[in-house]
Amino acid sequence: MATGKIYRDLCDLKKQDKSGFAVLADPDKISPADMQHLARLCNNAAVDYLLIGGSLLMVNQLEACIQRFKAESEIPVVLFPGSPSQFTPYADALLYLSLVSGRNPDLLIGQHVISAPQIKASGIEVISTAYMLIDGGVQTTVSYMSNSTPIPADKPDIAVCTAWAAELQGKHIIYMDAGSGAKNPVSEEMIHKVSAHTDIPLFVGGGIHSPEKVYANCKAGANIVVVGNAIEQDPLLIKDLAQASKAAGINKTL
Questions:
Q1: Model confidence pLDDT, tens digit, residues 199-234
Q2: What's the distance, CA 175 to chain centroid?
Q3: What ranges make up the beta strands (E) of 53-162?
Q4: Which segments of the chain are extended strands (E)?
Q5: What is 5-252's CATH number, 1.20.1530.10, 3.40.50.150, 3.30.450.30, 3.20.20.390?
Q6: What is the C-alpha end-to-end distance of the chain, expressed in Å?
Q7: What is the C-alpha to C-alpha distance for residues 62 and 42, in angstroms, rounded to an integer?
Q8: What are the distances in angstroms from CA 83 to CA 26, 53, 144, 203?
Q9: Do the Cβ atoms of 185 and 136 come closer than 8 Å?
Q10: Does the model's pTM come out above 0.90?
Q11: In degrees rounded to 5, what are phi and psi of residue 20?
Q12: Would you place residue 82 in the very low, low, confident or very high pLDDT band (cuts 50, 70, 90)?
């Protein structure tokens, strides 16, 4: 399936050595009524993307959350699903995740076989994503639910080789994630090595709580930094986090 505008924009960030910022919203933790306020904060901060999804989907309000957000904002909404059930054509694009850091065949291809007919028929922009879970110091929901071992935080060479394998297989982007609630975010050394040795856009998330960390990750080579938990605790952080990503991109070109 051909990629669309969102992926082309991500590739431009990579080519220009620039960075962006994405807010991650979990439909189990935010209500449709809250999305109006979130959209206005994102608009004011010039956030690049809203990612939406979670490890679980206990409340059936995914579509309602997306519709409420899009009623207030033109920021692209990208699905970040934890399972095939977390799909709706109301989003602008889908990160089609393959857990390449693990050895669970269901998350490498099994769930994709189940979801492929619906996704193919929807016409949504599909961004094939090499999802790499990195050890964040504690067992996270995603590591537990995926029944997979994360890449050790002090083994950047394993991360590089995993990213190479994914790139050679034709994945569109790499997403390195320490997981929601991570004690330690992905190291700048690992981000730099993966970014420097691959030609496709790099997302980084998990355990990021400050503008300083967003800035450092972008300087290290992340094209999109994703923050969820910290924003759930303090939505007013959005503007500072987004500004940090832009500042890092500007400073890299000076």
A1: 999 999 999 999 999 999 999 999 999 999 999 999
A2: 6
A3: 77-79, 93-99, 125-133
A4: 20-25, 49-52, 77-79, 93-99, 125-133, 173-177, 202-205, 224-227
A5: 3.20.20.390
A6: 37
A7: 18
A8: 13, 9, 14, 19
A9: yes
A10: yes
A11: -135, 180
A12: confident
Alpha-carbon distance of 74 to 198, in angstroms, equals: 30
Residues in the chain: 254
Q: Which two tokens stand for residue 253?
A: 């070109």
> What's the DSSP call for residue 169?
T
For residue 52, list its beta bridge partners: 25, 79
Q: Are 237 and 245 in contact (CB under 8 A)?
A: no
Tokens 């449709």 appear where? Answer: 32
Angle at 106 between CA 165 and CA 147, to 5 degrees: 90
Structure tokens that stand for 211 in this block:
């503008």
Name the residue among 1, 2, 3 with its Cα closest to residue 201.
Answer: 3
> H/E element holding 191?
helix 188-196
